[in-house]
TrEMBL record:
This is Thiamine biosynthesis protein ThiF. It comes from Anoxybacter fermentans. GO terms for biological process: cyclic threonylcarbamoyladenosine biosynthetic process. InterPro entries: ThiF/MoeB/HesA, ThiF_fam2, ThiF_NAD_FAD-bd, ThiS-like_dom, Ubiquitin-activating_enz. Residues 1-57 form the ThiS-like ubiquitin domain.
C-alpha cells in the first residue's frame, strides 16, 4: 500500500498505523500530522494518506523543508497552488499582506509590481520592518518572502502602472490582485483588465479604512472575472486612517479568494 511520508512515496502493509510508520522513519518526531491534522492518538493508515513527521525545534534540510511547510494543508491543495502564477499590483497594506499569505500557502510564482519605497508610516499596516525603510518595496518583499518560503518564485517589476503597461506586465499571470491605495489607480487597473484582458481574473478591494466592524468587510462576485472585497464605504480620509486590523482582514479576503479560484471554487 502506498502512502506519502513528508511528501515522499512510502510503501507499507495494510493495517499499518501512523505511529508505527513514525517509529520506522523518524522515531524522535514528536508531531505527527495526518492529512493536514495533528493526531495524538494512533490511526490505521489508508491508501495515499499523507503523513508528516516533525521534531520540535529541528531545522530541516532544504530537501525536507517544503514538505514540512505544507504539512497542515488540506490534501490536494499544494499540487494546484504550486502551479499558480499570481500578479499583485501594489505592495502597500493590501499587497504586502496578500503576498505573504500567498507565500505561506506555497504559491508557485508571484509577480510583484510597485514603484515606491518603504517609509516609516508604512509600518503601521504593511508587512515590512525598520531595516527595509528606504528600500524599494519590491526588493523588500522579495527578501521577506525568501525568509518565509524559499520555494516561491518571485518576479519583480518596479513600475508605475497605467493603461499603457498593465496588459503587457500582467500578460502571463493567472489572477491579478488589485492592491492600491489610490482610487484612480484602482479604477484604471480594474477597467483595463475588464475591457482589454477578458481572459484574466481580477480580485480588487475597496473600503477597509478605520476601525469599524470586522463583519462589514465582505467578498462579492461582481462578474465572472471580477471579485471585490471590502465594505465599499470606508475610504481613507482625514479622521479615518488606514490601520493594520481591517486592512489585513481585507487583504486576507483577497488572498483566500485567490486560493478558492485556484482550487476551482468560483463562488464567494
Amino acid at each position: 500500500m502506498n502512502i506519502f511520508v513528508n511528501e515522499r512515496n512510502f510503501t507499507i502493509k495494510e493495517g499499518t498505523t501512523a505511529f508505527e510508520v513514525r517509529d520506522m522513519v523518524k522515531k524522535d518526531a514528536d508531531i505527527v500530522v495526518l492529512n493536514g491534522f495533528i493526531i495524538r492518538e494512533d490511526m490505521i493508515l489508508k491508501e495515499n494518506d499523507k503523513l508528516t513527521l516533525i521534531k520540535r525545534g529541528e531545522i530541516p534540510d532544504k530537501n525536507e523543508l517544503e514538505a514540512l511547510l505544507i504539512a497542515r494543508h488540506t490534501p490536494g491543495v499544494h499540487e494546484k497552488v504550486k502551479k499558480a502564477y499570481i500578479g499583485i499590483a501594489g505592495l502597500g497594506g493590501l499587497g504586502s499582506n496578500v503576498a505573504i499569505s500567498l507565500a505561506r500557502i506555497g504559491i508557485g510564482r508571484l509577480l510583484l509590481v510597485d514603484f515606491d519605497v518603504v517609509e516609516p508610516s508604512n509600518l503601521n499596516r504593511q508587512q515590512y520592518f525598520i531595516k527595509h525603510i528606504g528600500m524599494l518595496k519590491t526588493e523588500a518583499m522579495k527578501d521577506i518572502i525568501s525568509q518565509i518560503n524559499p520555494f516561491v518564485k518571485v518576479d519583480i517589476k518596479n513600475a508605475y502602472l497605467d493603461e499603457n503597461n498593465i496588459s503587457d506586465i500582467f500578460s502571463k499571470v493567472d489572477i491579478i490582485v488589485e492592491a492600491f491605495d489610490n482610487p484612480h489607480s484602482k479604477a484604471t487597473l480594474v477597467n483595463t483588465v475588464l475591457n482589454k484582458m477578458p481572459g484574466k481574473i481580477i480580485v480588487a478591494a475597496s473600503g477597509m479604512a478605520g476601525y469599524f466592524s470586522n463583519n462589514t468587510i465582505v467578498t462579492r462576485k461582481i462578474k465572472n472575472n471580477f471579485y471585490l472585497v471590502g465594505d465599499g464605504i470606508s475610504e481613507a480620509k482625514p479622521g479615518c486612517g488606514l490601520m493594520a486590523p481591517r486592512v489585513c482582514i481585507a487583504a486576507n479576503h483577497q488572498a483566500n479568494t485567490v486560493l478558492r479560484l485556484i482550487m476551482g471554487e468560483k463562488g464567494v
